[in-house]
Predict the structure.
Amino acid sequence: MTQALAIVLAAGKGTRMKSDLPKVLHGLAGAPMLAHVLRAAASAGIPRAALVVGPGMDAVGEAGSAVTPDAQVFVQPEQLGTADAVKAAAPAYGATPGPLLVLYGDTPLLRAETLKAVLGEIEAGADLVVIGFEATDPTGYGRLLFDDKGRLAGIREEKDATAAERALILCNSGIMAFRSNAALSDLLSRIGNNNAKGEYYLTDAVALAHGDGLQTRVVLSNAEEVLGVNSRSELAVAEGLMQRRLRAAVMEQGATLVAPETVFLSYDTVIGRDVVIEPNVIMATGVTIEDGATIRGFCHFEQAHIGAGATVGPFARFRPGADLAPGAHAGNFVEIKNSHIAEGAKVNHLTYIGDSTVGPKANIGAGTITCNYDGFAKHRTEIGAGAFIGSNSSLVAPVKIGDGAYVGSGSVISKDVPADALALTRAKQEEREGWAAKIRERRSRDKSK
Ligand code: UD1
Ligand code: CA
Protein backbone atom coordinates (compact mmCIF):
# COMPACT_ATOMS: atom_id res chain seq x y z
CA MET A 1 0.00 0.00 0.00
CA THR A 2 3.02 2.30 0.23
CA GLN A 3 2.62 2.99 -3.49
CA ALA A 4 -0.78 4.66 -3.05
CA LEU A 5 -1.14 8.09 -4.65
CA ALA A 6 -3.71 10.78 -3.90
CA ILE A 7 -4.75 12.85 -6.91
CA VAL A 8 -6.18 16.01 -5.42
CA LEU A 9 -8.42 18.08 -7.68
CA ALA A 10 -8.14 21.78 -7.02
CA ALA A 11 -8.41 23.53 -10.36
CA GLY A 12 -11.78 25.05 -9.54
CA LYS A 13 -11.73 28.85 -9.38
CA GLY A 14 -13.95 28.96 -6.33
CA THR A 15 -15.89 31.89 -7.78
CA ARG A 16 -18.37 31.88 -4.92
CA MET A 17 -15.64 32.59 -2.38
CA LYS A 18 -15.28 36.07 -3.97
CA SER A 19 -11.58 35.94 -3.21
CA ASP A 20 -8.14 36.60 -4.66
CA LEU A 21 -6.95 33.46 -2.89
CA PRO A 22 -7.50 30.08 -4.60
CA LYS A 23 -10.38 28.37 -2.81
CA VAL A 24 -8.42 25.43 -1.38
CA LEU A 25 -6.04 27.84 0.38
CA HIS A 26 -8.79 29.26 2.55
CA GLY A 27 -8.15 28.01 6.03
CA LEU A 28 -9.86 26.41 8.97
CA ALA A 29 -8.43 25.40 12.33
CA GLY A 30 -5.12 26.99 11.38
CA ALA A 31 -4.43 25.29 8.04
CA PRO A 32 -5.57 25.60 4.43
CA MET A 33 -8.36 23.22 3.34
CA LEU A 34 -5.89 21.51 1.04
CA ALA A 35 -3.53 20.78 3.95
CA HIS A 36 -6.30 19.04 5.88
CA VAL A 37 -7.01 16.81 2.88
CA LEU A 38 -3.32 15.97 2.41
CA ARG A 39 -2.87 15.23 6.10
CA ALA A 40 -5.87 12.88 6.10
CA ALA A 41 -4.35 11.09 3.11
CA ALA A 42 -0.93 10.86 4.76
CA SER A 43 -2.36 9.45 7.97
CA ALA A 44 -4.31 6.88 5.97
CA GLY A 45 -0.97 5.68 4.62
CA ILE A 46 -1.08 7.54 1.31
CA PRO A 47 2.19 9.42 1.40
CA ARG A 48 2.28 10.67 -2.20
CA ALA A 49 0.19 13.36 -3.81
CA ALA A 50 -0.45 14.83 -7.24
CA LEU A 51 -2.19 18.20 -7.16
CA VAL A 52 -4.24 19.35 -10.11
CA VAL A 53 -4.47 23.14 -10.15
CA GLY A 54 -5.67 25.83 -12.49
CA PRO A 55 -3.38 28.21 -14.38
CA GLY A 56 -1.65 30.75 -12.12
CA MET A 57 -2.29 28.80 -8.92
CA ASP A 58 1.37 28.37 -7.94
CA ALA A 59 0.52 29.13 -4.33
CA VAL A 60 -1.55 25.94 -4.18
CA GLY A 61 1.49 23.86 -5.06
CA GLU A 62 3.56 25.58 -2.39
CA ALA A 63 0.93 25.00 0.28
CA GLY A 64 0.70 21.37 -0.79
CA SER A 65 4.46 20.85 -0.59
CA ALA A 66 4.45 22.23 2.95
CA VAL A 67 2.47 19.13 4.00
CA THR A 68 3.54 16.58 1.41
CA PRO A 69 7.11 17.56 0.49
CA ASP A 70 7.35 15.68 -2.79
CA ALA A 71 3.84 16.55 -3.97
CA GLN A 72 3.75 16.94 -7.76
CA VAL A 73 1.75 19.76 -9.25
CA PHE A 74 -0.09 19.59 -12.58
CA VAL A 75 -1.87 22.41 -14.32
CA GLN A 76 -5.18 21.66 -15.98
CA PRO A 77 -5.29 24.42 -18.63
CA GLU A 78 -9.07 24.46 -19.01
CA GLN A 79 -11.73 23.09 -16.71
CA LEU A 80 -13.29 20.46 -18.91
CA GLY A 81 -14.57 18.25 -16.10
CA THR A 82 -13.37 15.97 -13.33
CA ALA A 83 -12.17 13.21 -15.70
CA ASP A 84 -10.11 15.74 -17.64
CA ALA A 85 -8.70 17.05 -14.35
CA VAL A 86 -7.55 13.57 -13.33
CA LYS A 87 -5.92 13.09 -16.74
CA ALA A 88 -3.75 16.12 -16.08
CA ALA A 89 -2.01 14.06 -13.40
CA ALA A 90 -1.24 11.19 -15.82
CA PRO A 91 2.57 11.45 -15.41
CA ALA A 92 2.15 10.79 -11.68
CA TYR A 93 -0.40 7.99 -11.74
CA GLY A 94 1.14 6.44 -14.85
CA ALA A 95 4.23 5.80 -12.74
CA THR A 96 2.19 4.44 -9.80
CA PRO A 97 0.87 0.88 -10.00
CA GLY A 98 -1.90 1.79 -7.53
CA PRO A 99 -4.05 2.23 -5.64
CA LEU A 100 -4.99 5.71 -6.83
CA LEU A 101 -7.36 7.93 -4.92
CA VAL A 102 -9.10 10.94 -6.36
CA LEU A 103 -9.77 13.53 -3.66
CA TYR A 104 -11.13 17.07 -3.78
CA GLY A 105 -9.09 19.89 -2.29
CA ASP A 106 -12.21 21.53 -0.88
CA THR A 107 -13.43 18.76 1.47
CA PRO A 108 -11.37 19.52 4.56
CA LEU A 109 -13.35 17.32 6.96
CA LEU A 110 -12.47 14.05 5.28
CA ARG A 111 -11.08 11.60 7.87
CA ALA A 112 -8.17 9.21 7.52
CA GLU A 113 -10.37 6.36 8.86
CA THR A 114 -12.69 6.67 5.87
CA LEU A 115 -9.80 6.63 3.42
CA LYS A 116 -8.45 3.56 5.21
CA ALA A 117 -11.83 1.87 4.70
CA VAL A 118 -11.54 2.67 0.98
CA LEU A 119 -8.05 1.17 0.81
CA GLY A 120 -9.38 -1.82 2.75
CA GLU A 121 -12.02 -2.45 0.05
CA ILE A 122 -9.32 -2.38 -2.60
CA GLU A 123 -7.20 -4.83 -0.62
CA ALA A 124 -10.29 -7.01 -0.38
CA GLY A 125 -10.57 -7.11 -4.17
CA ALA A 126 -12.50 -4.02 -5.31
CA ASP A 127 -11.38 -2.39 -8.56
CA LEU A 128 -13.19 0.91 -8.06
CA VAL A 129 -14.50 2.37 -4.79
CA VAL A 130 -16.71 5.41 -4.34
CA ILE A 131 -17.35 7.20 -1.06
CA GLY A 132 -21.09 7.74 -0.85
CA PHE A 133 -23.31 9.50 1.65
CA GLU A 134 -26.99 10.01 2.36
CA ALA A 135 -27.92 13.61 1.64
CA THR A 136 -30.76 15.37 3.41
CA ASP A 137 -30.91 17.55 0.31
CA PRO A 138 -29.32 15.71 -2.64
CA THR A 139 -29.66 18.66 -5.03
CA GLY A 140 -26.54 19.11 -7.13
CA TYR A 141 -24.93 15.77 -6.32
CA GLY A 142 -24.42 12.73 -8.50
CA ARG A 143 -26.76 9.87 -7.46
CA LEU A 144 -25.46 6.35 -6.92
CA LEU A 145 -27.18 3.71 -9.07
CA PHE A 146 -27.19 -0.01 -8.28
CA ASP A 147 -27.90 -3.13 -10.33
CA ASP A 148 -30.38 -5.81 -9.30
CA LYS A 149 -27.64 -7.64 -7.43
CA GLY A 150 -27.02 -4.54 -5.30
CA ARG A 151 -23.72 -3.71 -7.00
CA LEU A 152 -22.77 -0.12 -7.76
CA ALA A 153 -23.65 0.24 -11.44
CA GLY A 154 -23.16 3.93 -12.16
CA ILE A 155 -23.42 7.54 -11.07
CA ARG A 156 -25.95 9.90 -12.58
CA GLU A 157 -25.23 13.60 -12.43
CA GLU A 158 -28.13 15.77 -11.28
CA LYS A 159 -28.46 17.53 -14.64
CA ASP A 160 -28.68 14.24 -16.53
CA ALA A 161 -30.98 12.47 -14.07
CA THR A 162 -34.60 11.38 -14.53
CA ALA A 163 -37.17 12.43 -11.95
CA ALA A 164 -36.99 8.94 -10.39
CA GLU A 165 -33.18 9.17 -10.17
CA ARG A 166 -33.39 12.60 -8.64
CA ALA A 167 -35.51 11.14 -5.84
CA LEU A 168 -32.54 9.01 -4.74
CA ILE A 169 -30.69 10.30 -1.71
CA LEU A 170 -27.55 8.14 -1.77
CA CYS A 171 -25.04 10.50 -3.35
CA ASN A 172 -21.51 10.58 -4.68
CA SER A 173 -19.09 12.44 -2.42
CA GLY A 174 -16.74 12.79 -5.38
CA ILE A 175 -14.03 10.73 -3.72
CA MET A 176 -13.12 7.69 -5.69
CA ALA A 177 -10.37 5.09 -5.70
CA PHE A 178 -9.00 2.83 -8.42
CA ARG A 179 -7.12 -0.41 -7.87
CA SER A 180 -4.57 0.17 -10.63
CA ASN A 181 -3.24 2.74 -13.03
CA ALA A 182 -4.07 0.46 -15.96
CA ALA A 183 -7.74 0.36 -15.02
CA LEU A 184 -7.83 4.12 -14.42
CA SER A 185 -6.14 5.02 -17.73
CA ASP A 186 -8.36 2.65 -19.67
CA LEU A 187 -11.57 3.99 -18.10
CA LEU A 188 -10.52 7.62 -18.58
CA SER A 189 -9.73 7.05 -22.24
CA ARG A 190 -13.33 5.92 -22.80
CA ILE A 191 -15.09 8.81 -21.06
CA GLY A 192 -16.73 11.30 -23.41
CA ASN A 193 -18.47 14.61 -22.85
CA ASN A 194 -21.85 13.89 -24.34
CA ASN A 195 -23.91 15.04 -21.39
CA ALA A 196 -25.92 17.97 -20.04
CA LYS A 197 -22.84 19.95 -19.01
CA GLY A 198 -20.64 18.98 -21.95
CA GLU A 199 -17.97 17.95 -19.45
CA TYR A 200 -15.81 14.87 -19.06
CA TYR A 201 -17.32 13.27 -15.97
CA LEU A 202 -15.05 11.10 -13.84
CA THR A 203 -18.26 9.60 -12.50
CA ASP A 204 -18.80 7.88 -15.88
CA ALA A 205 -15.93 5.59 -14.94
CA VAL A 206 -18.30 3.70 -12.65
CA ALA A 207 -20.76 2.52 -15.34
CA LEU A 208 -17.85 1.64 -17.63
CA ALA A 209 -16.14 -0.38 -14.91
CA HIS A 210 -19.39 -2.14 -14.02
CA GLY A 211 -19.98 -2.95 -17.70
CA ASP A 212 -16.48 -4.47 -17.88
CA GLY A 213 -17.36 -6.76 -14.98
CA LEU A 214 -14.96 -5.00 -12.60
CA GLN A 215 -15.80 -4.95 -8.91
CA THR A 216 -17.31 -1.63 -7.90
CA ARG A 217 -18.01 -0.83 -4.24
CA VAL A 218 -19.32 1.97 -2.05
CA VAL A 219 -17.88 3.07 1.29
CA LEU A 220 -20.38 5.14 3.23
CA SER A 221 -19.40 8.23 5.16
CA ASN A 222 -21.52 10.76 6.98
CA ALA A 223 -22.51 13.85 5.04
CA GLU A 224 -20.46 16.17 7.26
CA GLU A 225 -17.23 14.48 6.43
CA VAL A 226 -17.51 15.03 2.69
CA LEU A 227 -18.89 18.55 2.95
CA GLY A 228 -17.55 20.56 0.04
CA VAL A 229 -16.77 24.20 0.72
CA ASN A 230 -17.87 26.59 -2.01
CA SER A 231 -18.62 29.80 -0.13
CA ARG A 232 -17.55 31.71 2.96
CA SER A 233 -20.61 30.52 4.84
CA GLU A 234 -19.83 26.90 4.01
CA LEU A 235 -16.28 27.56 5.20
CA ALA A 236 -17.70 28.77 8.51
CA VAL A 237 -19.85 25.63 8.76
CA ALA A 238 -16.78 23.48 8.11
CA GLU A 239 -14.82 25.42 10.74
CA GLY A 240 -17.57 24.81 13.28
CA LEU A 241 -17.63 21.08 12.56
CA MET A 242 -13.84 20.87 12.70
CA GLN A 243 -13.76 22.72 16.03
CA ARG A 244 -16.31 20.30 17.49
CA ARG A 245 -14.14 17.42 16.40
CA LEU A 246 -10.95 18.94 17.86
CA ARG A 247 -12.62 19.81 21.18
CA ALA A 248 -14.08 16.31 21.49
CA ALA A 249 -10.60 14.86 20.94
CA VAL A 250 -8.89 16.91 23.68
CA MET A 251 -11.71 16.15 26.13
CA GLU A 252 -11.43 12.48 25.21
CA GLN A 253 -7.74 12.69 26.15
CA GLY A 254 -8.51 14.07 29.60
CA ALA A 255 -8.74 17.85 29.37
CA THR A 256 -11.65 19.80 30.86
CA LEU A 257 -13.17 22.48 28.65
CA VAL A 258 -15.62 24.36 30.81
CA ALA A 259 -17.46 25.81 27.80
CA PRO A 260 -16.16 23.83 24.81
CA GLU A 261 -18.08 25.86 22.26
CA THR A 262 -16.04 28.94 23.21
CA VAL A 263 -12.60 27.33 22.94
CA PHE A 264 -10.98 27.43 19.50
CA LEU A 265 -8.24 24.98 18.65
CA SER A 266 -5.89 24.42 15.74
CA TYR A 267 -5.33 21.19 13.89
CA ASP A 268 -2.00 20.77 15.71
CA THR A 269 -2.94 21.88 19.24
CA VAL A 270 -1.62 19.49 21.89
CA ILE A 271 -3.37 19.49 25.26
CA GLY A 272 -2.41 17.18 28.10
CA ARG A 273 -4.35 15.39 30.81
CA ASP A 274 -6.06 17.29 33.57
CA VAL A 275 -5.61 20.59 31.82
CA VAL A 276 -8.50 22.92 32.62
CA ILE A 277 -9.45 25.49 30.01
CA GLU A 278 -11.93 28.13 31.04
CA PRO A 279 -14.23 29.86 28.54
CA ASN A 280 -13.15 32.01 25.59
CA VAL A 281 -9.68 30.75 24.82
CA ILE A 282 -8.05 30.69 21.39
CA MET A 283 -5.22 28.41 20.37
CA ALA A 284 -3.66 29.42 17.07
CA THR A 285 -1.15 27.00 15.56
CA GLY A 286 1.84 25.44 17.32
CA VAL A 287 0.51 25.36 20.87
CA THR A 288 1.26 22.73 23.50
CA ILE A 289 -0.31 22.79 26.97
CA GLU A 290 1.24 20.19 29.28
CA ASP A 291 -0.58 18.10 31.90
CA GLY A 292 -2.33 19.80 34.76
CA ALA A 293 -1.98 23.38 33.50
CA THR A 294 -4.84 25.80 34.08
CA ILE A 295 -5.81 28.26 31.38
CA ARG A 296 -8.20 30.85 32.70
CA GLY A 297 -10.67 32.71 30.52
CA PHE A 298 -10.00 34.98 27.55
CA CYS A 299 -6.45 33.94 26.63
CA HIS A 300 -4.83 33.83 23.20
CA PHE A 301 -1.93 31.52 22.31
CA GLU A 302 0.19 31.11 19.22
CA GLN A 303 3.32 28.91 18.86
CA ALA A 304 3.61 28.74 22.60
CA HIS A 305 4.42 26.10 25.20
CA ILE A 306 2.84 25.95 28.64
CA GLY A 307 4.55 23.62 31.12
CA ALA A 308 2.89 21.14 33.44
CA GLY A 309 0.90 22.66 36.26
CA ALA A 310 1.45 26.24 35.08
CA THR A 311 -1.32 28.82 35.41
CA VAL A 312 -2.17 31.37 32.75
CA GLY A 313 -4.62 34.22 32.55
CA PRO A 314 -7.30 35.38 32.56
CA PHE A 315 -6.65 37.73 29.61
CA ALA A 316 -3.11 36.65 28.77
CA ARG A 317 -1.51 36.63 25.35
CA PHE A 318 1.21 34.13 24.47
CA ARG A 319 2.92 34.95 21.19
CA PRO A 320 5.39 32.86 19.16
CA GLY A 321 8.24 31.48 21.21
CA ALA A 322 6.59 32.01 24.59
CA ASP A 323 7.56 29.18 26.91
CA LEU A 324 6.24 28.94 30.44
CA ALA A 325 8.03 26.35 32.59
CA PRO A 326 6.21 23.94 34.88
CA GLY A 327 4.51 25.63 37.78
CA ALA A 328 5.15 29.18 36.57
CA HIS A 329 2.39 31.80 36.59
CA ALA A 330 1.40 34.39 34.01
CA GLY A 331 -1.59 36.46 35.03
CA ASN A 332 -3.98 39.01 33.63
CA PHE A 333 -3.05 41.39 30.83
CA VAL A 334 0.34 39.80 30.40
CA GLU A 335 1.90 39.46 26.94
CA ILE A 336 4.84 37.12 26.45
CA LYS A 337 6.79 36.70 23.22
CA ASN A 338 9.91 34.66 22.40
CA SER A 339 10.79 34.26 26.05
CA HIS A 340 11.40 31.51 28.55
CA ILE A 341 9.83 31.93 31.96
CA ALA A 342 11.52 29.44 34.31
CA GLU A 343 9.98 27.27 36.99
CA GLY A 344 8.19 29.03 39.78
CA ALA A 345 8.57 32.48 38.24
CA LYS A 346 5.60 34.85 38.42
CA VAL A 347 4.54 37.43 35.88
CA ASN A 348 1.18 38.26 37.23
CA HIS A 349 -0.13 41.60 36.06
CA LEU A 350 -0.07 44.01 33.11
CA THR A 351 3.34 43.13 31.75
CA TYR A 352 5.16 42.71 28.44
CA ILE A 353 8.00 40.20 28.36
CA GLY A 354 9.65 39.97 24.93
CA ASP A 355 12.93 38.34 23.84
CA SER A 356 13.77 37.51 27.45
CA THR A 357 14.70 34.82 29.89
CA VAL A 358 13.18 35.01 33.32
CA GLY A 359 15.00 32.90 35.92
CA PRO A 360 13.46 30.44 38.34
CA LYS A 361 11.35 32.00 41.08
CA ALA A 362 11.85 35.52 39.75
CA ASN A 363 9.00 37.91 40.48
CA ILE A 364 8.01 40.42 37.83
CA GLY A 365 5.97 43.25 39.28
CA ALA A 366 2.85 44.73 37.77
CA GLY A 367 3.40 46.93 34.76
CA THR A 368 6.94 45.76 33.99
CA ILE A 369 7.93 46.24 30.36
CA THR A 370 10.93 44.76 28.58
CA CYS A 371 11.85 47.41 26.01
CA ASN A 372 13.12 44.89 23.46
CA TYR A 373 12.90 47.03 20.33
CA ASP A 374 14.82 50.22 19.70
CA GLY A 375 13.16 50.99 16.40
CA PHE A 376 15.80 49.09 14.45
CA ALA A 377 16.54 45.76 16.10
CA LYS A 378 15.34 43.45 18.84
CA HIS A 379 17.47 42.91 21.94
CA ARG A 380 17.41 40.44 24.81
CA THR A 381 16.67 40.88 28.48
CA GLU A 382 17.99 38.37 30.99
CA ILE A 383 16.47 38.27 34.43
CA GLY A 384 18.26 36.04 36.94
CA ALA A 385 16.95 33.46 39.37
CA GLY A 386 14.98 34.91 42.26
CA ALA A 387 15.29 38.48 40.96
CA PHE A 388 12.58 40.94 41.94
CA ILE A 389 11.46 43.56 39.45
CA GLY A 390 9.48 46.30 41.14
CA SER A 391 6.23 47.41 39.58
CA ASN A 392 6.15 49.75 36.61
CA SER A 393 9.80 49.23 35.69
CA SER A 394 11.16 49.42 32.17
CA LEU A 395 14.04 47.11 31.32
CA VAL A 396 15.79 48.60 28.30
CA ALA A 397 17.38 45.75 26.35
CA PRO A 398 20.01 44.53 25.93
CA VAL A 399 20.22 44.26 29.69
CA LYS A 400 20.89 41.69 32.40
CA ILE A 401 19.46 41.61 35.88
CA GLY A 402 21.61 39.35 38.08
CA ASP A 403 20.38 36.52 40.30
CA GLY A 404 18.64 37.77 43.41
CA ALA A 405 18.89 41.42 42.31
CA TYR A 406 16.18 43.94 43.15
CA VAL A 407 14.87 46.65 40.88
CA GLY A 408 13.02 49.44 42.65
CA SER A 409 9.53 50.22 41.38
CA GLY A 410 9.26 52.71 38.58
CA SER A 411 12.89 52.34 37.47
CA VAL A 412 14.15 52.57 33.92
CA ILE A 413 17.00 50.08 33.82
CA SER A 414 19.42 50.46 30.92
CA LYS A 415 22.61 49.05 32.48
CA ASP A 416 23.24 45.54 33.79
CA VAL A 417 22.43 45.01 37.47
CA PRO A 418 24.84 42.75 39.40
CA ALA A 419 23.54 39.78 41.37
CA ASP A 420 21.95 40.67 44.72
CA ALA A 421 22.25 44.45 44.10
CA LEU A 422 19.49 47.06 44.25
CA ALA A 423 19.00 49.24 41.19
CA LEU A 424 16.87 52.31 41.42
CA THR A 425 16.53 55.11 38.87
CA ARG A 426 13.53 57.02 40.07
CA ALA A 427 13.78 60.65 41.22
CA LYS A 428 14.14 61.35 44.97
CA GLN A 429 10.85 61.97 46.78
CA GLU A 430 10.19 65.41 48.29
CA GLU A 431 7.58 66.33 50.91
CA ARG A 432 6.17 69.80 51.64
CA GLU A 433 4.39 69.69 54.93
CA GLY A 434 0.95 71.27 55.06
CA TRP A 435 1.03 72.13 51.33
CA ALA A 436 -2.22 70.39 50.41
CA ALA A 437 -4.16 71.85 53.32
CA LYS A 438 -2.89 75.33 52.43
CA ILE A 439 -3.96 75.00 48.79
CA ARG A 440 -7.42 73.80 49.80
CA GLU A 441 -7.85 76.74 52.13
CA ARG A 442 -6.80 79.24 49.43
CA ARG A 443 -9.20 77.68 46.89
CA SER A 444 -12.20 77.85 49.21
CA ARG A 445 -11.33 81.49 50.05
CA ASP A 446 -11.21 82.37 46.29
CA LYS A 447 -14.56 80.64 45.69
CA SER A 448 -16.42 82.53 48.44
CA LYS A 449 -15.22 85.87 47.07
C1 UD1 B 1 -18.89 16.33 -8.58
C2 UD1 B 1 -19.35 14.95 -9.04
C3 UD1 B 1 -20.66 14.62 -8.37
C4 UD1 B 1 -20.53 14.69 -6.87
C5 UD1 B 1 -19.99 16.05 -6.44
C6 UD1 B 1 -19.65 16.05 -4.98
C7 UD1 B 1 -18.51 14.72 -11.32
C8 UD1 B 1 -18.87 14.77 -12.76
N1 UD1 B 1 -19.50 14.97 -10.49
O1 UD1 B 1 -19.87 17.25 -9.08
O2 UD1 B 1 -21.09 13.30 -8.75
O3 UD1 B 1 -21.76 14.42 -6.24
O4 UD1 B 1 -18.79 16.35 -7.17
O5 UD1 B 1 -19.30 17.32 -4.57
O6 UD1 B 1 -17.38 14.44 -11.00
N2 UD1 B 1 -12.39 20.18 -10.82
C9 UD1 B 1 -11.22 20.38 -11.49
N3 UD1 B 1 -11.24 20.52 -12.84
C10 UD1 B 1 -12.38 20.42 -13.56
C11 UD1 B 1 -13.59 20.21 -12.88
C12 UD1 B 1 -13.57 20.09 -11.50
O7 UD1 B 1 -10.16 20.45 -10.88
O8 UD1 B 1 -12.32 20.53 -14.78
C13 UD1 B 1 -12.38 20.05 -9.37
C14 UD1 B 1 -13.07 21.20 -8.66
O9 UD1 B 1 -12.13 22.19 -8.29
C15 UD1 B 1 -13.68 20.54 -7.45
C16 UD1 B 1 -13.91 19.11 -7.88
O10 UD1 B 1 -13.09 18.89 -9.01
O11 UD1 B 1 -12.77 20.49 -6.36
C17 UD1 B 1 -15.37 18.83 -8.21
O12 UD1 B 1 -15.77 19.62 -9.28
P1 UD1 B 1 -17.20 20.27 -9.39
O13 UD1 B 1 -17.30 20.99 -10.67
O14 UD1 B 1 -17.53 21.02 -8.15
O15 UD1 B 1 -18.12 18.96 -9.47
P2 UD1 B 1 -19.65 18.85 -9.16
O16 UD1 B 1 -20.41 19.32 -10.33
O17 UD1 B 1 -19.97 19.43 -7.85
CA1 CA C 1 -19.00 20.84 -6.36
